[in-house]
Amino acid sequence: MEVFKVTGNGALSGKVHIGGAKNAALPILAASLLTEQAVELHNVPDLSDIRSMVAILQHVGAQVDKIGDGHWRIQAKNLSHSAPYDLVRRMRASVCLLGPLVARKRRAEVSIPGGCVIGPRPVDLHIKGLKKLNCQVEISNGYIHVDAQAMRGGRVFLGGRNGSTVTGTANIVMAAVLAPGTTLLECAACEPEIVDLCHFLVKMGAKIEGIGSPELTITGVERLHGCDHSIIADRIEAGTFIIAAAMTRGNVRIEGIAPRLLGAFLDKLEEAGLPLEYGAKSIQVKAYTGSLKPVDVITLPHPGYPTDLQAQLCALMTQTEGISILTERIYPNRFMHVPELQRMGASISIEGPSAIIKGSSSLSGAPVMASDLRASAALVIAALAAEGTTWIQRIYHLDRGYERFESKLAAIGGRIERLPASAIPAELLHDAQ
Ligand code: EPZ
Fold it and tell me: What is the pTM of this model?
């Protein structure tokens, strides 16, 4: 087990380059199963979730080779239709195997993905969508069993009580591209990662209209062919570094990301008074004096404020002058970061799906525990502005979605080290018990 040792020591400064988007790369890796020809992917981030997906693709019979940094070649000549529990349980996104297996094999057996700390992760909309494509679906022994011999295009509405579903949209699109007839997918997710998946599928020969809108029209084709594709930049990694720069009143240039991918997020930071400048593929966070203003945020499906940047903003709002309210409409319990931030001195209370954050908290270093991927990033952000040293345990959560997080932060002045857990002073752990 490893830990991060972070010492707050002033403003970050310099340039950071944003890598490929985890949440685009995962469904696109799964979509590579839709053809028996070779697919080449570039700008794939080096993350433990990516390695988990590679293992699953290999298990179902694909040849998967790493050609170079971020460059992978996948060829799925022969495929089995079953994705086993011990691989699927590690990562929710493995549910994205459903669509391609149904499309290629006309049958699938995929373990129901486990829940996680951010809340229940249902798949009822995925199943509803497959049934609307005339698939027989049943759940037994913890697996989703799909018989798609009679699959055909149909009308699918994917809206649930919290809006659309990102991986559910991915699954239905990946099934429909090889389904006879036409599929009208309404209330589809519009996240940039779904747009990138659709662009990838069109390169493979799929027929998809309405890309980027909540209404997709998919005309099934006989087969798809190989292609070459570069994964879009990771807007959530970019937002994380923007907040880290703002937390330390630093001067940091975020490179390789188009500002339009972060519309609602940047709008909120401008409302808080953060000085920002934009290029075609860059965002400059400028140093400021004084404090940012508090903001109220409700997380929503894209183009609304992304839930994956809620925890990071929560850390930043502890430093404003006033009270901020962050309300979760996607995962109402996604506040695992709050008790850990409170250990560092933050004044936050939880009222139902909202975190009420009193600003002007002086944060001090403490031993804290990482939990979900984005909550862990929030702890690092808080530690960068805290007095003294913070020890962050269970950082494997971070390694799921951030490539070389500590080295990118250190390169812009962050005092952060990856150490063995034994490096934590015993007296600190004793106090923490
Ligand atoms: C994707 O998860 C992302 N993961 C998540 O990012 C992200 O937080 C989430 O979308 C929301 O934007 C990947 O893309 C791999 P959903 P997904 O299905 O697809 C409810 C990260 O940190 N719902 O869009 O699993 C669900 O409970 C991760 O990178 C149903 O009710 O999320 C939630 O409230 C965390 N029934 C809402 O919809 C369903 O069948 C959105 O879930 C499916 C979902």
Answer: 0.97
